[in-house]
Amino acid sequence: xxxxDETTDWKLEALAYPLAAGVQQELTxxxxxxxxSTDYDWREAMEGAYSENLAITSVLARRHGEPxxxxxxxxxxxxxxxxxxxxxxTHRSHRDRGLAGRVIEVALAQARVAGCQVCLLGTARxxxxxxxxxxxAWHDGSVMSRYFGAADFAQHAFAxxxxxxxxxxxxxxxPGLTLLAAQPIATVSLDSxxxxxxxxxxxxxxxxxxxxxxxxxxxxxxxxxxxxAGPENSRVFGFGSATLxxxxxxxxxxxxxxxxxDHYAAxxxxxxxxxxxxxxxxxxLRVEAMVPSxxxxxxxxxxxxxxxxxxxRPGALQLTSGPADVIVLCRTL
Length: 333
What we know:
The protein is of the alpha+beta class. The protein has two domains: about 1-155, Aminopeptidase; about 165-330, Gcn5-related N-acetyltransferase (GNAT) (Aminopeptidase, 3-Layer(aba) Sandwich). The protein is about 25% helix and about 35% strand. The model is unreliable at about 1-5 (pLDDT under 50).
């Protein structure tokens, strides 16, 4: 898509991934004026590595052919309902001219036309940030949201009783997992290995990076990432990971993390069983889980599956209410 503002010679382009080599270079140069890296691998994304399941579009504002502002929108390729915006940047020499607002609005229009009901983003707490001028409101911590439809969409998305199945995660799950992680889930730890804590106990500090940080870490060690998801939509009701140990232990040890939305806690045993089966396939000999005190449903699930408590780390997790103990549980396979 191409639009031109004849009064200023600005051109706005919406560029769907994968990108041509020349555009990749231009966009990367612009992004590197502010960052050396962002939430996911730029090159892989621009070359289309995630495009089978995740629709990504970067909006560029150009003047005299030079890209000077950008924003990138992400949503599931199939049945999108949630969008995540990121990599919003205006070149330092062209700020305070409304360019960020222009690229944001084009990006939001892409998501709305695709069928998304809400868009999320992560940003520093600033009462005068540009997003507040484009329909966004503070959700929790550093996360903001803008609804295109009903403001109670999240309640509808996580309503109990929907069909749910466990499968391997893919990049199309990024937006759905982002929305799940933004909910005030009763479970304290969403993923203690990567520091993901429910907003009920700590202000949310991550947004777009939630999925990539778990994906990259588990994949780099030959582990697995699974989701509990709606089979006919892009909703993510839970997720779990098995992260294999370092080369020093020859991959014989794995750390398990798993969580569901409160309305889908009955699926916790099946999610754990899926992870254990994946560990056996990878010839893992011993598995462990680290659970904050208070996560009783998760502790009960692990104990039923044969895990035994091997250690307690007093006050290892600092929550808004104060320090919490972390219980370590292990079992052999």
